[in-house]
Amino acid sequence: MRAISTVVDATVALLLIGGAVATLTAGPGAVADPSPRDHADEQARIVATSTAGVDYALAPDRSAEGVVVEVDDAPLRRTARGTLASLLARAAVANATVEGERLLPARRGYERAATGLVRNRTGGPSVRTAVRATWEPYRGAPLSGSVRAGPRPPADAYVAAAALTVSSGVPAAEADARRAAESDGFDGVARAVSDAVVRGLFPPDETRLALRGDAPVDALAARRYRRTARLFGAGEPGVGERNATETNARLAASLADRFERDLRARYGSPDAAARNASTGRVRIVVRTWSP
Predict the structure, then answer these.
(1) Model pLDDT for residues 231-280, shown as the tens digit of each residue
(2) Partner of 169 at 20 to 30 A CA spacing, among 103, 110, 194, 238?
(3) Do 131 and 284 meet the contact criterion of CB atoms below 8 Å apart?
(4) In terms of DSSP bridges, do strands 77-83 and 51-57 run parallel, antiparallel, or are they unpaired?
(5) Do 251 and 205 sit in the same domain of this protein?
């Protein structure tokens, strides 16, 4: 089985909401425990610091991708290791969608493995836990990804929550976006964010190796480029030329056009748009309640 390192930094910053765990009332008629035990911070620390590994296989949707492979093919097997938070953050990026369509359908196996692991490692007989990870290149972006591990809390439950942030594995565009806002306005912010997103989804060196690799990995990499180009409106990429740098530039340009239109409609100024850039971060919210 081939092992690969996670694309996310395992170092996380635990940011308890409001400086402490926030207790939220949910639904009329709920009766609070007179001395409720707050487990959210404890569960968040478990997510932030516990390390583990997950085994999975790339398993594309054959009808959507047109790639005939067997799920148990050795070249498609993978192992990812890291903190629970980093594994979940990677799953959020892998689950990114554009207009409801997944960019990376072959990563469904990883998403299931990561969320199942987090679900099994959190909660217990005296507490229920739900963990949600969300990645947005900027707040409200038309391209984003999220995953959830654990059940939804009952409508009448009193819920405690804690939040933490973890690296997404996508290059951080925040500093570049702020500089671009001053010189090139919304267009500059959109380019900075889209460049970071495409570099994160298609690291040039790794992608070039995949395209030149053995079957079925090369076919999956090429199909992934074509699918992303279609969803970004970039036309047919020249993946046959194995030119990852040129193809990435085309993808980033098309995504920048979409981001610029959305940023202009969503934010009052380029500076406000730049301040909301968050390509390099995934936000994870841990919620707990008594069963």
Answers:
(1) 998 876 655 445 778 889 999 999 999 999 999 999 999 999 999 999 99
(2) 238
(3) yes
(4) antiparallel
(5) yes
Q: Classify residue 72 as left (phi > 0), alpha (psi -120 to 50) or beta.
A: alpha
* Average predicted confidence (pLDDT) for the chain: 82
Q: In this structure, what token pair is assigned to residue 261? A: 């239109």
The full DSSP string for 47-97 is HHH-EEEEEEE----HHHH-----TT-GGGEEEEEEEHHHHHHHHHHHT-E
228 and 113 in a common domain:
no
Q: Is the pTM of this model over 0.85?
A: no
44, part of any domain: yes
Whether residue 165 is found in the same domain as residue 182: no
Q: Which tens digit of pLDDT belongs to each residue from 114-157?
A: 999 999 999 888 889 999 999 999 999 999 999 999 999 999 98
Specify burial of residue 193 (Cβ count, 10 A radius: 0-12, 13-18, 19+): buried
Asked if residue 215 and residue 80 are part of one domain, the reply reads no
**Residues 151-182: tens digit of each pLDDT:** 999 999 889 999 999 999 999 999 999 999 99
Q: Does a cis peptide bond (omega within 30 degrees of 0) precede residue 125? A: no
Asked whether residue 159 falls in the same domain as residue 75, the answer is yes
